[in-house]
Every structure is written in C-alpha cells, then in structure tokens.
Amino acid sequence: MVVIAASLLIPAGAAAGDVPAISPASDPAQAGMLDVATLAPGFVPDMRYAGSDNFTGRPVPGYEAPRCYLHAAAAQALARVQRRLQAQGHALRLYDCYRPVRAVQSFMRWVDDPADQLAKARYYPNIDKGLLEEQGYIAAQSGHSRGATVDLGLLDCRGGTCVERDMGTGFDRFDPLAHTDSTEITPSQRRNRQRLLEAMRAEGFANYPMEWWHYTFQPEPTPGTAYDFPVR
Q: Of the chain's two ends, which shows fewer C-beta atoms within 10 Å, N or C?
C-alpha cells in the first residue's frame, strides 16, 4: 500500500519533511539489493503490482516482473524470518517489496482521477476515493522505494500444501479492519496477525499499525535515498 505514515515510517535521523534523493542506480546490483527468493526456499510470490489484482485494477508502471528486491541486510533478515516460520510449518507470501519511484507517482495520478474506480469493490468499498489522500492512505513518497519495506502475508504449510492464513482482510484493503490491532476481527485472525508480527519483529522488522502486512527493516540501510530502476 501507499499509506503515508506506513510507507514513510520516518527513519531515525530523518525529519518528517525530508524528501529522499533519487539514486542513479539502474539495477538491483548497483543499489545493493538482492532478490529475496534466492536467499531461502519456499517464498510464495504474489506481487500484486506486476499484475491487475491491485487497487488500481491494472499493472503498475515500473513492475515488469513479479520479483521481490530488498537491500541486502533487509533481504537476509527476511530470509531468516522465512526459515524460522518454515521450522513451524509456515511460510511467507510476498505482495510487494522494493517499489520504483515511478510506481508511486502513478499512484498519485490514479488517486487524482475520480472516474477510475475499477477496483473499488475489493480494495476500498467503504471510503470515497477522493478522501484516500486526505485520510493518509495515499502519499507522494513511499518507504518501499528505499528498499527496506515489504508487504507480506502468512501461509500454513503443515498439511503439505500451503494455504493462506485468514488475516481478517486482504492485502491493501483501505479500511480500519486492516489495522494490525483491530478489535473487529476474530480471535483466530488476531492470532494469525500476531504470529506474523512476532516472527518479523524477531529479525528487526517494525510493523506499521494501520496495515497488518506492512513491515520496515530497522535501521534502514539508506534512509535518505529512494530508487527508480524497474523491477524486472
């Protein structure tokens, strides 16, 4: 998602009004990023912005392949989370990782087009699109563009086939039900969120309370730098 407080999760030493500089890096290697899937087995990619199953209803500019890149330290930490969960019979489903600046800019164009409501029923049924920016759901900057933020879900693989754990809402649902500590979800859904929270926290990832799926590795490797190379 592109929630302002979530995506910015202002890193230590940075002021709330700081605008990250855009790096000239043209690929993951130049940016110091790794493909997470190469570091541990069993990740299940579901990279929503590379396809049409997302809140815009179409593939997002900058996503040319369903791959998850993160800065090396964050990627290695996420691999440790995956191995920890696998030992418990679970695994991670990946929704979004590094996000090019051009993708964030496309989100801003989308929110400024009131006629475009392709995915409203699934992603923001209870909020007027025109209020998404005002209420803090859409912002002009994203922590994903700094390469240390990941959106993910939890899978139960104990039966031999991995199935999605019920987290109370789907990914990128613009709704209070998606708040990590929502009181409107069931005890089972709360336990699923807590399992994910504890596994991520153990390896240095901080959750954004408005989104159960959203985590940022702390401290961020490049808190003052954003990237714009395409995901391919």
A: C
211 catalytic? Reply is yes
The answer on whether 144 is annotated among ligand-binding residues is yes
214 is in an annotated binding site: yes
Determine the residue type at 73: A
Q: What is the pLDDT of residues 146-170, one digit of tens each?
A: 999 999 999 999 998 999 999 999 9
Q: What's this model's pTM, rounded to 2 decimal places?
A: 0.91
| Continuous H helices in the chain | 4-8, 28-31, 72-86, 101-111, 120-123, 187-201
CA separation for the pair 76, 20 (Å, rounded): 24
Residue with tokens 């209870």: 126
- Sorted by where each begins, the domain ranges of the chain are 4-9+34-226
Among residues 137, 200, 190, 199, the alpha carbon closest in space to that of 168 is found at 190
In 100-117, which positions are buried (b, 16+ CB within 10 angstroms) versus exposed (e)?
bbebbebbeebbeeeeee
Amino acid letter for position 15: A
Report angle CA 178, 135, 55 to the nearest 5 degrees.
55
Instruction: For domain 4-9+34-226, give the CATH number.
Output: 3.30.1380.10
